[in-house]
What does this fold into?
Amino acid sequence: MRALEKFREIFAQRHEYAREWKANHDGRVAGYFCIYVPEEILYAANVLPVRVIGSREPEDVTEPYITGWWCPHTRSALAEALKGRYDYVDAIMIGNSCPHIFQTFFSWSRNLSPSLAYDFWVPMNLRNPSALEMMSKQFKELQDTVEKWLGKSITRDDLRQSIATYNDNRHLLHQLYELRKKDEPPISGAETMEITLAGMVTDKENHSRLLRETLKELEDTNSHRDPGVRLLLLASEFDDVEVVRFIESLGATVVIDEMCTGSRYFWGPPAPTDGDLMRGLVDRYLNRPSVCPHKDIVERYRLPQIMRFIEEYRVQGVVYLLEKFCEPHGYDLPKLKALFEARGLPFILLEVDLTTPVGQFRTRVEAFLDIIREKAAIG
Amino acid sequence: MNNTQYETRPVESWAKMKELRRAHFKHTWEAAGHGEPIVMGMTEALLGYLAGLGNFADPSYGPYYTKLMRNPPELIKVLEATEAQGHTRDVCSSMRCYLGQLYTGMSTTAPNGSQIKPTFLFQVTNCHTMAQTGNTFSEYLGIPYLSIDLPYDDTPISREYVYQQMVEGIPWIEKVTGRPYDDEKLIEAVKNEWECMVLWAKIVASTRAIPAPFDLRHLWSLRMPMLTMRHRKEGVEYCRMLYDEAQWRIKNNISARGMERMRFLHEGFPPYHYIAILKQPNEYGAIFVIMENSQGHGAWDRYADGSWEPTKTLQELGRELRTREDALRAEVELYVTYMMSSTWYPKYRPKEAVRRAQDWHCDAAVLGLDRGCHGYQVSIMETKQELQKAGFPVGSYEHSQSDPREFSLAQTLDRLESFMESLGLTRICEANAEKAEEAVD
Ligand code: SF4
Ligand code: SF4
It folds into this structure.
C-alpha cells in the first residue's frame, strides 16, 4: 500500500486507531476542539490528542442540545460523540472559541461526563502585550491539571521531547506543502487534506514516519501531472475530502489551503526546545502566522498570510468552502472579496452543510474554472 | 393561579429614562463641538475606564439603533446595506444593523446633516461578534481600535489579565485622543459605575416581590441610562430614583400591570424590533418578570449553593479608591467577579436559569430562540431541558433580534397564545388589557 493510502485509511478508521493506540500505549486520549489547545503538553504526558471531527452523516441526535442554526461541523462532532463513537475519549479540551464549537464542548461535558473537561481563555486579540504572560500561566495551569488528573508529573524532558516531536511533524508538513509550489505539484489538494486530517488523529511519531515515506515517494515520482487551474482553498474546520476531490476532478488542483484542518493547524516556525519551554510554546500558539478569523482582532494577520500564499503558490482562483451558519468566517468575506477583486483574482463562495451533494456545485465550479482558463489564455 | 387584582400605576421614572436616553444620543452629535472624543463600539462595559478621558460620547450600536428598531422598513434597508457589502445573514443581526449604519453613512451623520469623525473604537470582547465587528468598523473609518479581553471565568489569572490590558491601554488612549488620562475622573467614574450596578441588581432583585413593581418590559427600557451612563453622576441619581420607586411600589403593593396570574421567565433576547412581545402575557393577566440579560447587568454576590444577592457598594465594603491601580482593580472585579457572564459562558447557564425561575417565583418560562445572536444562544436548549426537569413548563418562539425579515408576528403570537392557553390562562377583559398598555415605548 502506498503511504498516501495509509493516511486515508487512518482517517477513515480513526476511532479504531485511537482505541488501539490506547490499548498498546497504556495511555489516555484527549479529544480537543480548535487549534489553540497545546497538544504538546498532553503528548508529553502520554496522552494522545485527537481532534474532534464529525462524520458528515445525516443525524438526528443533537436536536435536544443545539438549535437548528448551528454550524454543521459542530453539529456533526456532537452527533459523533452522542452516538458513542468517541467512547474511548477520556478528556475533552477547548480554548475559548466560537460559540458554536463551545456549545459542542459543553454539551459533551454535561451529557457524556468525560473524566476531565477543561476549557481556558484564549485571547481574542492574540498579540496584545498582556497575552503572552496570561497564556503562559494558563498553559502551566493546564499542565498542573493534566498532572493531577493522571497522578504523575510531566518532566522538562518529557515536554522537550514532545515539542521536538511536534516540531518534526510540522517541519515535514511544511516540506509537503513546499512540493505544491511546483509547476506540476506531485500531490493533489484532496490527498494533502487526507494527510493533514490523519495527522490530527494519529500519534505524531507514527504520522511523521508515514509522512517521510510519502515525501520520499513523491520525490521519487516523476509526476507530469497537469494541475489545471491552481486554487487556494479557504475554509474553517472543513473535513469533507470528497468536496475537494470533486472540485479538482473538474480540472483544477488545490495547491494551497488556509483552513483549520490544513495549513492553519501547523504553519509557522518551530517551538524552541531549550530555554523557557512553556513560554516558547505559548509564543508559537499566539504568534502563528495563520490566524483564525475569529481571533484576528485589531491588527489583521490572516489576510496578509492569504495574500502571501497566493503569491508563493501562484494561485489563479480562490474557493471558499463556508460552513452553513458560520458567523466568524462570514465576517471576513467583504474584505477578502475586495482584496481578490483588486488583484483580479476570481473567487467563488460555496456553502457546505452536514452532507454536501457535490453535484449541486458542478455548474458553478465549471463556470468559475472556465473564467480562469479564459483569463489565462488571454494572458 | 394568582387572581388578585392589584393596583397599578405608570412608572414615574419612565420620563427621566427617556430624557436621559435622548441626551445620550444627542451627545454624540455635540461631543466634537465640546472637544470631547467620540468612542465607537458597543461600550457596554468598562465605562469608568474610558471616563479617565473626561467626557466622551459613545453611541453604542450606532446612533440610530433605537430609531431603526422602531421602524422595520428602514431597518431592513440598513441590514441590506450590510449584506450588499458581502456579509452573510449569519452575522448577528444587531451587528448587521450597526455595520449598516456605517455603510450608509448614518453612523457619522447627524440628523441636521453635519458630519462627525469618531476618535477610536473601543470593544470589550466577551462577545466575539462585537470583537470582529470592531475590526470591520475601525478599518472602514480608518480609526484605531482598542480591544480588551474579558474572560468568562473569575480566576486570579483572568483578573490580572484584564487589569494588565487596561494599564497598557491608557498610554494608547492618551496617544490617540491627545488628552491626558485623569485618575481623579477615573476614580469618580468607577465609584459611580459600581454603585449603579449594585443599584441595578437591587432594582432587578426587587421584582422578586409579589406583585412585582416592574415587569420585564419596564426593565428593558428602564435599564438604558444604567447601560449608557452608569459611570456618571446622572446615572447614579437615576438608579437611586428608580430603586426608591421600586421600594415605594413594593411597600404600597403597586404592581407592574395590575395582575400577575402567572409570572414568566424569558430566556434569550426578545426581538428588539417588536419589543411589545414582552407585554404579550399581559393580555392573559400574566407578566414576564425576569430574563438573564436584565439580571446580568447588575453586580451580584454568588454563593456556593447557587443563590445570589446584590453585592455591596464600595462604601458598604469600606473600600476607598485612592489610586489608579485601586480604581482599575475595582473595575476589573466589577466585571469579572460581579457581573454575570453566564449568558456567554455556557457552563453555568442552564442551572442558573432554573434558579432564576425559582427565585423570581415564575410559573413557566418562554425561550426567545434568536437566530440573530450566537453568543446568547449557547446552551439555550439545555436550559430548556433543565427548566423542564425542574418542573417549569417551557414555551418558545423563533426570531432574529434585529432582523424583522426573520420573524413572523402571526406565528409567534399564535405559539405564545397556545402556550398560555395550555397553562390554563385565558385572555382577560379588554379593560385590563388596556390597563396593561400603560406608558411604554
Ligand atoms: S468558526 Fe464557523 S465552522 Fe468553526 S465552529 Fe464556529 S461556526 Fe463552526
Ligand atoms: S446580540 Fe449576541 S452576538 Fe450580537 S452583539 Fe449581542 S451578544 Fe454579541
